Amino acid sequence: MKHLSRFVLIALSLIMTLPVLSARELNIVPQPSYMDIAAEGEFIVTPKTCIVVVDDLWAPAERFVEDMQQHFPDSKPMRTVKRGKGIKIRLDKFVPAEGYEMTISEEEGVLIIGGDEAGVYYGLQTLRHIIVTNDGKVPYGFIADEPTFAYRGAHFDVSRHFFSVEDVKRYIDILAAHKLNRLHWHLTDDQGWRIEIKAYPELTEKGSIRKETLVGHGLDPKWLDGEPYGGYYTQEEIRDVVKYAAKRYITIIPEIEMPGHSQAALHALPWLGCHEQQVDVWTMWGVTPEVLCAGKETTYKFLEDVLKEVIELFPSELIHIGGDECPKDRWKECEHCQAMMKAEGLESEEQLQGYLVARIEKFLNANGRRMIGWDEILDGGVTPTATVMSWRGVNAGIYAAERGNDVVMTPMTLCYLNFYQTKSREGEGLQIGGYIPFEMVYAWNPYEGMSDEAKSHIIGVQCNMWSEYLKSMKWVEKMLLPRLAAMSEVQWANDRRNAETIRSRMETLRKFYDACGWNYAPYYFEGRE
Ligand code: ACM
Ligand code: ZN
Prior knowledge:
This protein is α/β, with parallel strands linked by helices. It has 19 helices and 19 strands. The longest helix has 18 residues. The protein is globular and about 75 Å long. The chain starts with 5 loop residues before the first helix and ends with a helix. Acetamide binds next to loops.
């Protein structure tokens, strides 16, 4: 806890006047940075409790009313008012960004002071958690809280399987309740292009549909299901989702994959490839040799046209350009790629990828945005201004951070929540592989092995949800929860993770999941490894 405002002192003086009995505990995930709960006394929240809004904080107040309506379904919505007693929310610049201080006392009722609107929102999330898991009784006391990392992300692959606007909103609700603030939306890949681009309607008309889907492991055609599969978001739907996320203080970072993982685009527009022959929207999983041609100017024009529309739709400063897993077989045989290498003095196909990435970064910067990419963008010589997402382990991230690049840590062996959660895999359905139990996520310190200089460039941590074997939101939730809770504590409360209290805090969080109707995996609660 870096800051204590004068409100802490007031709160502490109030609490110290209360009789000292056995201390009560509040089980909260992620762990707040400071809690002092009085031995007795509580404020009881009912549907009749008013939200007293100061400093024009109507937006977070309305979100809270909406959230609480889910828990008080038979009552009128809670009222927001300008003065009175109840749950009062206000701002103070002495509270850190995204942080809050909450005082619960006879005099104050509940008072939440945020460093900014997001901080008020997170305070209200904590309050909601207490109300829902404790029958509306909020014990007198004081809580101060602030996040460790400014970037607290979760990724969602909607290419391998498509998820409706309602599903994505539900995903956002779950992230927000865990105090995450970034959704990395993986919108394009070999198996489906999911975002309407007005300049190239073929991308969704043709590129959003595949003939069939691999439903087993390996590349054996016997595992193809023979069912056409597709779906995409209109620009209007995208705008709606972006707005929905922003109201929950979540920035959506869109990902447009390039130059690899682009077979769906190549199916729609074969002139984007080196050989220009027709290819299918891919029906299998893995890495395909069909990639965008990096030698033709038409490819660059296409990418810039697409990104122009993406920039219009997404206010995020960071735009994700993929950059991962791009085989160079086609480029080696392509006269255009080879000519571009010669003209630009590039010695290898890796450098050609570096050239493409650098050109795209320049375009994004000229349009007021910044580029983020998977750690392969380091291979071709990345600029110091790119943000790197370290997924092939942590070393790429440490290397980039030491060179001064901003880094988001998301190593596959700890952060891919589509991996199995148990050793036996019983009840887990067919998943892609791997093994990441709750405890493994929880034990991870993203700063491990880093110099202070490198640490200062780690902007955050992200978990990823790849959907090759996830066909429905029910399954996505089961893979996400409860491991997202472990992830959220790494992201929000890295300096105060506590292996001794996490299990009892998770038992309380489980009640919250039940109240929200989310489909969580039972294994951690059953003690199954
Ligand atoms: C990745 O998993 N290919 C980023
Ligand atoms: Zn080429």
